[in-house]
Amino acid sequence: MRAPLPTHHSVVVIGGGQAGLSASYHLKRHGIDHVVFEKNRIAHTWRSQRWDAFCLVTPNWQCQLPDFPYAGSEPHGFMPREEIVAYVEAFARRTGVPVREGVAVTRVARRDEGFLVETSEGHVTADAVILAVSAYHIPKIPAMAAGAPKGIVQIHSSAYKNPDQLPSGKILVIGSGQSGCQIAEDLHLAGRTVHLVVGSAPRCPRFYRGRDAVDWLDDLGQYEMTVEDHPLGEKVRGNANHYLTGRGGGRDIDLRRFANEGMVLHGRLTGIENGRLTLADDLARNLDAADAVYNGICALIDRHIAEKGIIAPEGAHYSPVWQPGEPVRSLDVEAADITGIIWSTGFRSDWSWVDLPFLDETGYPAHRRGVTDVQGLYVIGMPWLWTWGSGRFLSVGRDADFVVDHLAALRANEMGSTPARMAV
Question: Residue 56, class by beta-carbon neighbours within 10 Å (0-12 exposed, 13-18 middle, 19+ buried)?
Answer without folding.
Answer: buried
